[in-house]
């Protein structure tokens, strides 16, 4: 088990394949799609677009999206959880790297030759360190990933490219719910409390979140807590499992350990020892 695969929800692919029809899907993570070459059609929010080499697309994840490979193609895709980035945004003079993802359902840029060289260099560095064991490759992967977010922010600041604003009310509701959970995951969360905060009927909220993400609200709460626990163990391998259990919102260490192993594949104690 590598530190990169264990600790980060980064999924970096660079491969060729064919598809008879697009695989349309949605999820709670943000997604970055870079097209290297071949013949590919990309679908998002009911719109289709023929891609050219050097096209870069970001998607907020909740927008239904997918790609159709018409022939042998090469592309890199990165999917990540915004919760990993938000702690870095609290630092002094931090740039809000997630703003381009929050402010649009999706955005597409056709990169210039110099921009393509820059983007492909970053993706190559990520590919080199993804999946390698040890903390040094993990931190080098994370540094390269932060560079990718800065590159995207720079593109967005210069001009939003082909931008579709996030005006869909349902998507906004789901984003509000996700942000509320990621801010309050350590507290006692009930459906009534969440619905009251968002001023929305709780039964409608449950249905809306499930349709948009494929998860129940409390499956997402559990996922958020486990991801935070992984980060706490990374930051300090000497933290006790019990302390981390209570810090991320679980009330019983046995329940925490069972959920952690189910999601991560190892017990929290084993995971902690990996980075002690």
TrEMBL record:
Query: Is Membrane tagged as a keyword?
Result: no
Ranges of residues in domain HTH araC/xylS-type: 175-274
A molecular function (GO) held by this record is:
sequence-specific DNA binding
Q: Which InterPro entries match?
A: AraC-bd, Homeodomain-like_sf, HTH-like, HTH_AraC, RmlC-like_jellyroll, Tscrpt_reg_AraC-type_HTH
Keyword annotations = DNA-binding, Transcription, Transcription regulation
Instruction: Enumerate the PANTHER family for this protein.
Output: ARAC-FAMILY TRANSCRIPTIONAL REGULATOR (PTHR43280), HTH-TYPE TRANSCRIPTIONAL ACTIVATOR RHAS (PTHR43280:SF28)
- Spell out the protein name for this chain: Helix-turn-helix transcriptional regulator
